[in-house]
Amino acid sequence: MTNAAPPLMGGMMDQPLLISSILRFAARHYGGSEIVSRRVEGDVHRYTVRDCAARARRLANVLGAQGVAMGERVGTLAWNGYRHLELYYAVSGSGAVLHTINPRLHPDQIAYIVDHAQDQLLFFDLTFLPLVEAIAPRCPSVKAFVLMSDRAHLPADGKIANLLCYEDLLAAASDDYAWPEFDEHAAAALCYTSGTTGNPKGVLYSHRSTVLHAYASAMPNALNVAAADVVLPVVPMFHVNAWGLPYSVLLSGAKLVLPGAALDGKSLYDLFEVEGVTFSAGVPTVWLGLVNHVLQNGLAFSTFRRTVIGGAACPPALMDTLIDRLDVKVIHAWGMTEMSPLGTTGGLLARHRDLPEAGQRAVLRKQGHAIFGVDMKIVDDDSKQLPWDGRTPGHLLVKGPWVVSRYFRDEGGDVLQDGWFPTGDVATIDPDGFLQITDRSKDVIKSGGEWIGSIDLENIAMAHPAVLQAACIGVRHPKWDERPVLVVVLRPEARLTRAEMLRFFEGKVAKFWMPDDVVFVDALPTGATGKVQKNRLRERFGDYFVLNGAV
Known about the structure:
Number of strands: 25
CATH class of the domain at 15-210 and 236-250: Alpha Beta
């Protein structure tokens, strides 16, 4: 029997969750917090959150003067810097949609994305002037291109029609602007993912989803961002909104340090030390470069104590080095563009304190526990839910208020399975709810009917002191369907033979998991977000066993 009476409504204020509310709060309550940017012009720029808010209001007036209407898209091709941060708040706060574009994509893909999004304006850093000159004729929707610099850096050759200067526009605008209120479900930002089949597909974030994600990701069980922190996001602002840090850092009142285009080990280390960075975030390849610079030069971190590593599985050897040799706590995280992106973060439960160090480290190596707002499950090929026993792998599905329900302009049709989003990852979940990604569905190695986890094999290989990077791929085999082949990049001056590498696996994995061969290369192919492109390795070595006479 159901109760047909209406629910008793609460007596609280109803206020929409809008991105502009983050900036208003930060300017009012943490207005003196510093924002430091290494500019592409070569110098370091400093101002406060209060200054950022005033310039964002000027920029909102600029957008209005340029005819940008509610819901229209504004593109950016920019590094992590204060001008890009101003766009984050001015575009979304005024009711338009911020479209961050990955400049590492092929120009053909960028032109496609700009046209598909129907961007009205395109703001770009000086670094990307040649790229914009190349694609501008193929972007008919763009009414004006805005160089994010001053007049001194404006080219005079006239290659780009209707080229405007960012600083001139802001100087001529007023900072008298009232942020509008509108439906919190309105679109706020657009990010295209190349992790799907076919052309890149757009993920359209709402104000509500973005604010909820920022609030949840700042919590202690997530990224634990606090006002006392100095945060440097290495993850680019053109990649899933820098994992939401431009929002969560401001709402937390922390100091924000933006590294610009210089992401090499030395440049990052110098900025960490000068600015007193306490917390950072990025993909494993970035930390490999930074850690190598620190160790090779006998350096140490003065203030840097926490980092979140995501985008790809963190190699255990890298985690151990950061924790044991550099005194940096590692938060292993997992998510994706379709999840805004945060889904899980690593950490220990209270009862894990009684575990020996090796047991604690085993927990930390997992991708972690779901944060509130995200639910997940694993299923088999028939969509039957699998147990959380930490051993049974299955296809990972997720749901939540910041998880995509459809792609922009309904590209790809219905993407959900009974209300859940299929991530394309293969994972296990243990009885405590800790997630461990074992592979991508497209990368899993199926040998003789059994699954072999390529990530586990890569992690073992990278624990060898001579190995800098490793990727494991499934290669067609005449008897077993697929067999694992390990592709290895050695450290400078290191020496390692195939036999020595294979012996390193003995006793660490089941015999049928042992790689059949090892191939040494100078570098692994990486994509626009820094992830290893295993599809290119499979193309290169697809006939490896045929050519080498496997039976």
